[in-house]
């Protein structure tokens, strides 16, 4: 008779997911699986397709299954903001939530998009924002989510430009106190009010999806300027191509922002941050996937 040694009990993996509609295109399961492997975290991460009229019910059912957190993608970031019992400062500032934490306190909403942007610019792209002149194009949700982290990076000037000047003015008013406390000059206006000589220009509009580029004045790019498009794809975006032809020394798309915001969410959930080597490896793998798809 053979004696069998009882195997040690294995703790169930903590559950996470990305919730959206659609969601099948999301690269988040791959990203977080790689982060978990690198940091030796025991978790699972899946895609959850939420009906357009049942986001809250989908989240609550996921919580009841024992889930610890979730990422939220379009079109539910505003609903996630409304659903949360608690909001972090950056989620309050953004007015939208892309990261949920489930614990004894209830549902906490966070927003890691802006931090992801800043980390990508100052990390892999090697451009310090401190003391620089920064132009943000667009005054929608993407811009709003980025402003507090951008202010925290300490640029000398942060200018928000938008087709409708009033919307840019609203954002400036909303973040004026934070900018004043950080010693950052914050201003805004319509396309025609854009000054010149910016070190970093961030396109937070969806223009690249339609092949549109905001009208920028001659001389908008300072020497050595970075042009950054939050959109990304297999090929350089229309904005990136236009920027290269009109004075930008360096261009980048938002793929790095995607990876860095995921790393920030992972750190919020797990208390450990993926290494820069891990984020760079994931970025390279995602870039290869995009190119392979054409």
Characterization of the model:
- The strands form two sheets. Strands 2-1-3-5-6-4 form a six-stranded mixed beta sheet, with helices on both faces. Strands 9-8-7-10-11-12 form a six-stranded parallel beta sheet, with helices on both faces.
- It starts with 13 loop residues before the first strand and ends with a helix.
- Helix 1 (28-39) packs across helix 10 and helix 5 (113-122) crosses helix 10 (255-270).
- Strand 8 (157-161), helix 7 (165-182) and strand 9 form a beta-alpha-beta unit.
- The chain has 294 residues and is α/β, with parallel strands linked by helices.
- It is globular, with a radius of gyration of 20 Å.
- The longest helix is centred in the middle third of the chain and has 18 residues, at 165-182.
- The protein has helices at 28-39, 55-64, 77-83, 89-94, 113-122, 141-152, 165-182, 207-210, 238-245, 255-270, 276-293; strands spanning 14-20, 43-49, 69-72, 86-87, 99-103, 106-110, 133-137, 157-161, 185-189, 198-203, 221-229, 250-252.
N-to-C series of helices and strands: EHEHEHEHEEHEHEHEEHEHEHH
**What structural category do the secondary elements indicate?**
alpha/beta
Instruction: State mean pLDDT (0 to 100 scale).
Output: 95
The shape, in one word, is: globular
Biggest sheet record: 6 strands, mixed
For the termini, the CA-CA separation is: 60 Å
Portion in strands = 15-25%
Oligomeric category: single chain
Q: Share of helix among residues?
A: 40-55%
Q: What is the alpha-carbon Rg in Å?
A: 20 Å
Low-confidence stretches: 4-8
Strand tally, please?
Answer: 12
Helical segment count: 11
Strand order of the largest sheet: 2-1-3-5-6-4
């Amino acid at each position: 008779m053979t004696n069998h040694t009882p195997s040690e009990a294995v703790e169930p993996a903590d559950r996470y997911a990305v919730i959206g509609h659609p969601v099948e295109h999301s690269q988040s399961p791959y990203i977080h699986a790689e982060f978990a492997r690198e940091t030796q975290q025991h978790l699972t991460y899946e895609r959850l397709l939420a009906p357009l009229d049942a986001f809250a019910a989908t989240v609550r059912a996921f919580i009841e299954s024992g889930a610890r957190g979730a990422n939220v993608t379009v079109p539910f970031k505003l609903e996630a903001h409304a659903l949360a019992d608690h909001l972090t400062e950056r989620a309050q500032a953004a007015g939208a939530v892309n990261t949920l934490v489930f614990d004894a306190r209830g549902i906490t909403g966070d927003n890691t998009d802006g931090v992801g942007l800043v980390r990508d610019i100052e990390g892999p792209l090697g451009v310090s924002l401190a003391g620089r002149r920064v132009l943000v194009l667009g005054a929608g949700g993407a811009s709003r989510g980025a402003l507090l982290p951008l202010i925290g990076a300490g640029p000398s000037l942060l200018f928000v430009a938008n087709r409708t000047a009033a919307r840019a003015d609203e954002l400036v008013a909303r973040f004026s106190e934070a900018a004043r406390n950080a010693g950052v000059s914050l201003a805004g206006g319509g396309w025609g009010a854009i000054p010149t000589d910016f070190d970093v220009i961030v396109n937070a509009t969806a223009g690249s999806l339609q092949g549109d580029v905001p009208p920028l004045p001659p001389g908008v790019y300072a020497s050595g300027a970075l042009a950054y498009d939050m959109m990304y794809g297999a090929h350089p975006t229309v904005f990136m191509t236009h920027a290269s032809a009109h004075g930008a020394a360096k261009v980048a798309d938002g793929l790095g922002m995607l990876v860095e915001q995921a790393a920030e969410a992972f750190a919020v959930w797990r208390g450990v941050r993926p290494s820069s080597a891990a984020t760079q490896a994931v970025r390279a793998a995602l870039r290869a996937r995009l190119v392979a798809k054409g």
